[in-house]
Design goal:
By secondary structure, the chain is mostly helical. It has five helices and two strands. It is elongated and about 60 Å long. InterPro entries: RNaseH-like_sf, RNaseH_sf, Tc1-like_DDE_dom. It holds the Pfam family DDE_3. This is Transposase.
Length: 117
């Protein structure tokens, strides 16, 4: 990811939502959002960036996923050797289907569209 690819993504989002007056994008504090290219693009775009606080694990899906991983693989488990630990990690990632219901509610794909009506 960089500023150019982010701008291309924003352009696609705008093209798919021609009726929207304003499109708010919730973003983390990645450097490419602060690039010099971004203000120039955003000046005439429908996109408005809304930044998460610097550390917002409940709002960041990857943080939720890692917490689930830790709870499933690490908490309450003792691994005698590194290969045992690695095997538990590998088993978790190759067997994600067994956690489908838990992950579906934790990593929701429901986004609120504001201003549609």
């Amino acid at each position: 990811m960089n500023a150019q690819s982010t701008i291309k993504l924003f352009q696609q989002i705008e093209a798919q939502n021609p009726e929207a007056g304003r499109i708010q994008i919730i973003c983390d504090n990645a450097r490419y959002y602060r690039s010099q290219l971004m203000p120039d693009y955003l000046e005439h775009a429908k996109i408005e960036l809304v930044f998460l606080p610097p550390y917002a694990p409940n709002l960041n899906l990857i943080e939720r996923f890692w917490k689930f991983f830790e709870k499933t693989v690490l908490y309450g488990h003792y691994y005698e050797t590194f290969p045992e630990f690695k095997a538990a990690c590998d088993q978790f990632f190759t067997g994600l289907d067994q956690y489908h219901d838990s992950l579906r509610s934790l990593l929701t794909d429901r986004f609120q569209i504001i201003g549609q009506g």
